[in-house]
Amino acid sequence: MALAPIAVTRAAEPKAHPADDRLQFGTVFTDHMFVMNYTDGRGWHDPRIVPYQPFSLDPATAVLHYAQAVFDGLKAYRGSDGVIRFFRATKHAERLNRSCQRLCIPALDPAMIVKSFHALVGLDQAWIPKKRGTALYMRPTVVATEPFLGVRPAKTYSYFLILSPVGSYYAEGINPVKILATDTYVRAVKGGTGDVKTAGNYAASIYAAEEAKKQGYTQVLWLDGVEHRYLDEVGTMNIMVKIGDEVITPPLSGSILPGVTRDSILTLCRDWGLKASERPISIDEVIGAARNGTLAEMWGTGTAAVVSPVGELGYKGERITINNGKTGPLTQKLYDAIVSIQYGEAPDPHGWMMPLETAS
Ligand code: COI
Fold first, then answer.
1. What is the pLDDT of residue 235?
2. Does domain 7-167 have CATH number 3.30.470.10?
């Protein structure tokens, strides 16, 4: 079936663009946004691009009370060859729909999600920064819009897509971050919502993250919710360690997000003939490896974080320095490799990059 046409209303006054070298994460938004609505009995309708603007919501709107909200995050890059490309757009659209399903939100046509990417980024493409390390971050989101205080799936929803030119996610840039493994708070348990991108997961993480910050850490390393023993993820990124010659990352066992960058980095490691294991890894194994000198490197992976080296791990009052607090050689090689693919400088053997189609 043909996709519904997208109505476009242009902004009267284009905004000023920030300089590439001043970009932070998620503070500036482009001139337009994409919106589409869902109504029970009618399905998803009225795809449109309108000037970037606030929403007006009834105070009883379901999402404001019970967080029936999902989102995803992906990036569009301006390649060194001038071509604009999305990184793994289809995979992100599929994950958004998986998140919708878990939150009882009606699925979108994945082709329409991808069409919204092309249409909005095509219109606002002048906002895509050029400098290496920058990109246009894309935030597709779905929220329940029905004004109703009962706890059940809403009957109306909005899908929207907003765009933000970004630099590094962490203030450290690509320098190593410090993470604190907590045995006090938990992010998720198997059977919960830890394996989808829903707003509540992030709300629940803020308190522990603030406590970690007071102790000088950038982020929390979440351990499993049952035994407080196995590494889960960092919340803003998946976690990987290199012990001896083995790259290890926790398996997709139901409590961590199936990261698109995680999948890509595992693929690169395997392409290079490295042993890359998806297996449970306990905090004791990591600390044991640090003590016996085999903990070589640690890094996080994520759309916003890309590949972020971890220079220090805190646990039960101990501070463990990894690779002398410096970016490890494999971490650097993985960062360079993925970034070169994203900027269209290196071959893309797995077909991860999707060039922007200009006609919508
Ligand atoms: C992303 O990497 O896209 C995320 O959603 C993580 C985050 C900024 C919350």
1. 81
2. yes
CA distance 124 to 138: 12
Instruction: Measure the CA angle with vertex 32, ends 29 and 33; round to 5°.
Output: 90
Q: How far is C-alpha 296 from the geometric centre of its chain's CA atoms? A: 26
Decide if pLDDT at 301 tops 70.
yes
**Are the CB atoms for 323 and 332 separated by under 8 Å?**
no
Q: Is the CB of 302 inside a 6 Å radius of any atom of ligand 1?
A: yes
Q: Is 303 in the pocket of ligand 1 (CB under 6 A)?
A: yes
- The residues of the chain that CATH labels 3.30.470.10 are 7-167
- pLDDT value for 170: 80
Q: Of 27, 86, 236, 260, which is best to mutate to test ligand 1, by the most ligand atoms within 8 angstroms of its C-beta?
A: 236
Nearest residue (CA) to ligand 1, atom 9: 236
Best residue for ligand 1 mutational test, from 96, 169, 197 (most atoms within 8 Å of Cβ): 169
Task: Tell me the whole-structure pTM to 2 decimals.
Answer: 0.96
Give residue-wise pLDDT tens across range 89-136: 999 999 999 999 999 999 999 999 999 999 999 999 999 999 999 999
Q: Is the CB of 311 under 6 A from ligand 1?
A: no
How is domain 177-327 classified at the architecture level of CATH? Answer: Alpha-Beta Barrel (3.20)
Say if ligand 1 is within 6 A of residue 259 CB: no
The answer to whether the beta carbons of residues 52 and 30 sit under 8 Å apart is yes
Rounded distance, CA 298 to CA 309, Å? 6
Find, among 163, 191, 189, 196, the residue nearest to 68 by Cα: 196
Average pLDDT over residues 324-352: 97
Q: Which residues belong to CATH 3.20.10.10 in the chain?
A: 177-327
